[in-house]
Write a structure and sequence with these properties.
Helix content is about 35%, strand content about 25%. The chain is an alpha/beta fold. Strands 2, 4, 5, 6, 7 and 8 form a six-stranded mixed β-sheet that branches. Strands 10-9-11 form a three-stranded antiparallel β-sheet, covered by helices on one side. Strand 4 and strand 5 (about 95-110) form a beta hairpin. The longest helix has 16 residues, at about 200-215. The radius of gyration is 23 Å and the shape is globular. The chain starts with a strand and ends with a helix.
Length: about 325
């Protein structure tokens, strides 16, 4: 891996980034985190190894995550299974492939309590814990993008004789303050528990993702893969540089102006405002968080279309 902007950091940080010890697992064809992610990114990296670059600045926060994982692993109860990698075989157009995932913690559950939960005895009942370093805005969200990861882990555990009950994210909120806690009821260690999907739904999802990753040809990134920003409408008073308020729809913005309840809208009419849709942004691509944006034709077409649209105004 080649890094940009690495030299601006002290040597210990440079060495930590260059000597990343992450192991995807011996004999693994695809990891749990890769399976749920874009199929295009690994395709481009495999076929353009000399062009893959990573901005070292994007790798500093993951170092915090590495430190948190080490602390949690070293201080877990002895009967917890921590940082263990599990394997399973999945079908693909290229034949059987090995899927693996390293789970932060598999927490055993009292078999009698599990029997009450399931209504029957089950083998190796457990909870799945995953540790994240989060921004407060992420903790405020429903964090639904982590749900797929948890269900892939559940699939792996079932294939290895366990009976998972739930998946829990423990999020360390990196920008937490007392004021934030009072205003938004966010704890410095934020807990989000997910119910697991039915086994059939989980298996169908994994087969669908394997089909996408191992089919012939160059896959396309979805809106989710590109971290496409949600559609928003802005209400900006004419003559002002910044928008006063953002809305999910044009209609909501127009009604807000018509109501005149806000101090900014009092005494105004719709003719005093500009209501326009903000361009949606492919945040992952434009920040090159994928490491291959510079060689991605899908992103290049998007950039050209944006340039033509701007020039046409």
């Amino acid at each position: 891996m080649r890094f940009d902007n690495l030299e601006q950091f002290p040597l210990p940080v440079q060495n930590a980034l260059k000597n990343d010890s992450y192991d995807g697992g011996i004999g693994t064809d695809i990891s749990a985190t890769s399976l749920k992610d874009s199929a295009r990114i690994p395709y481009l990296k495999r076929n353009n190894p000399d062009h893959v670059r990573e901005d070292a600045r994007n790798m500093i926060l993951p170092l915090f995550g590495t430190a948190i994982h080490l602390i949690m692993e070293n201080n877990s109860p002895k009967d917890w299974i921590t940082e263990e990698r599990y394997y399973a075989v999945v079908n693909s157009p290229e034949g059987e492939k090995v899927l693996s995932g390293q789970i932060d913690a598999v927490v055993p559950v009292d078999p009698k309590k599990a029997e009450k939960f399931f209504g029957k005895p089950v083998p190796k009942p457990c909870l799945i814990y995953d540790y994240k370093v989060l921004h407060s805005w992420k903790a405020e969200s429903d964090m639904s993008d982590f749900e797929e990861q948890g269900n892939i882990y559940a699939y792996l555990l079932r294939q290895n004789g366990f009976t998972p009950i739930s998946f829990t994210i423990w999020g360390f909120v990196r920008d937490w303050t007392n004021a934030l806690a009072e205003r938004k009821q966010i704890n410095p260690l934020h807990k989000k528990e997910f119910k697991l999907w039915p086994e059939k739904k989980c298996e169908d999802y994994i087969n669908e993702r394997a089909l996408l990753h191992f089919s012939e040809g160059e896959p396309e990134c979805s809106e989710k893969d590109m971290w496409l920003s949600p559609s928003k409408w802005e209400a900006k008073k004419k003559g002002h540089v910044k928008a006063t308020k953002l809305f999910d729809t044009e209609r909501e913005a127009q009604l807000w102006i018509a109501d005149g309840d806000h101090r900014s809208t009092a005494g105004t009419t719709i003719d005093d405002w500009n209501v326009t849709e903000r361009p949606r942004v492919r945040r992952r691509c434009e920040g090159n968080y994928c490491g291959v944006a510079e060689i991605c034709t899908q992103f290049e077409i998007y950039r050209r279309e944006n340039e033509n649209r701007t020039e046409g105004k």
